[in-house]
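Hello,

I think I submitted the thiamine diphosphate job twice by accident. Can you confirm which output corresponds to this input? Input:
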Amino acid sequence: MPQALAERRPDLAQRVLHVREMARWIRKRALRMVFEARQGHPGGDLSATDVLATLYFDSMRYDPGQPADPARDRFIMSKGHATGALYSTLAKAGFFPEEELTTYMQPLSRLNGHPNRVKIPGVETNTGPLGHGLPVAVGIAIAGQIDRADYRVFVITGDGELQEGSNWEAAMTAGHRKLSNLTVVVDRNRLQQGAGTEDTVGLEPLGDKWRAFGWDVVEVNGHDVEALIPLLDGSVARSRPLCIVANTIKGKGVSFMENKASWHHGVPNAEQYAQAMKELDA
Ligand SMILES: Cc1ncc(C[n+]2csc(CCOP(=O)(O)OP(=O)(O)O)c2C)c(N)n1
Ligand SMILES: [Mg+2]
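Support: Only one job matched these inputs. Its output is below.
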């Protein structure tokens, strides 16, 4: 079984610093991908980055040289449009060369707008059509439970994505089967494509919904790495699946993108890109 960084780095302050450094790198790299490709989803990349960085650079056990290792922890980016952040993370974690990120969404590149498990090592299942990541994760978690395997299964869903009914079938099954090996992080940025979630199909009271389906629920600031680490590192034993409602800011880290629906799939011009990079370096 490969070790998570958390197991090798006992000092919490060091772990926090390391994850923050990785998050800064991911944000900048994802934004460069969107800028160069002239397409992508920067708002959702930036809101999910701190959770992703905590998972890959602290909590999860994996060996990038053996992406199919049966003992690996599994991660599914259910909001599959956030490939800028996902591919940057997978490259930094060693699943494929960082230089390949320059091919993002180019003809013949395997780094498509939505992730493909056949093409990219480290991608567990194809996503993009919203509402499918959690159902697949529930299947993987049931398999782990039957096999008495000790791997864990993590999913990031969008909040707008939760308007897809398939999530709630999966949530009901996970609660019924007490899938304690499963953690869902809801990227609760309160925006979907073009509008606020509560103005479209409201989700509140969101935590109570998951609780009613038999889940443990924790609400957290999704950019607070120090708070995320102990929730994701498996240090608390659980008897039920865990839903982390991660309150985030869409476009986090770039002032003019923050909380703006237009940056869901906006592309910065050269001046905006330079400004964004300056802010992310600060
Ligand atoms: C089934 C489906 N319907 C519509 C879309 C188009 N779409 C892509 S992203 C998105 C909004 C998603 O919002 P949210 O889940 O809140 O993601 P985030 O805010 O993190 O970007 C939509 C409607 C899709 N990918 N799949
Ligand atoms: Mg959202």
